[in-house]
Amino acid sequence: MAAKKRKPADDGLDEVYLGDFDGFVARRDALAKQLKADGDDDAAAGVKALKKPSRTAWAVNQFAAHGKKLRDELLKAGADLRAAQEGLVSGDGDREAMIKARDRERAAVGAAIEAIAAVAAEAGPELNAAAQERVRATLHAVALDDEVRAQFESARLTTDHEASGLGGGSMADVGAPRKRPAAKKGGGKAKEAERRRRQREELKAAEADAAKRKRELEAAELELREAKEAAKRAQGDLKRATKGQERAKAAADRADGKVADLRGD
To answer: What pLDDT, on the 0 to 100 scale, is given for residue 9?
Structure first.
């Protein structure tokens, strides 16, 4: 099969996404300018509109582009997990195979996180616990979300993603046996079972949302602490600079006075 033809901007986009984190906007704008100069206005507009990745997404992109062995293991483990989950949902799967696939996928995610954290630490500040959890969720999403997987494979992620299982399930219940619908022996019992099933699903969804909000809160609190520390440092710098200016002015005034005295002014 013939290789897929790359678009004119593809090579440039590789450079835009995989360069250093801070230089993304400058590289993006430079590529858009070049495409416009080449007469490709549509491609230029598309490139200009590209959103800068979050720092965690940038680190995952670096891993996706350069960590071939671990990346391939993650993709294979994710594909196997998805196949095992689909089999279990359809009733044709094997629970033991599902658990094995789940454990392999989790191990692959764990190894990938270590590599991604190392990339981030080498390029700048280390990923804190909240950031690593966002990376973990994104990597799990690679297994179960076609769009996230495609962005990961092309190293074009721009934001973090939540992992959601097939049919609305979550990674937390991957490997749990799915109950087949009960035989209709009595309308009341069937309705009660359905009510309890919905209640369990709502609880899982609520727990997942609470966990997400907690991660967002932790990230926001960290950002606030860092901002406060930066403001405190800036205030200290301002005080030191003010005192330095005052001392310099006093010294200059004394020097001017001495010159005036010597001149007899």
So the answer is: 55
Q: What gap in Å lies between CA 52 and CA 97, rounded to an integer? A: 40
CA–chain centroid gap for 22, Å, is 16
3-state secondary structure of 170: strand
- CA gap 105, 46 in Å, rounded: 35
Distance CA 148, CA 77 (A): 15
Contact 176, 169 (CB under 8 A): no
User: CA of 81: how far to CAs of 72, 84, 153, 170, in Å?
Assistant: 14, 5, 17, 13
pLDDT (tens digit per residue) in 98-141: 899 999 999 999 999 999 999 999 988 889 999 999 999 999 99
Stated pTM of the model = 0.59
Dump pLDDT digits (tens) for 217-243. 776 777 777 678 777 787 878 888 888
- CB contact at 8 A, 142 and 149: yes
CA–centroid distance for 188 within its chain: 46
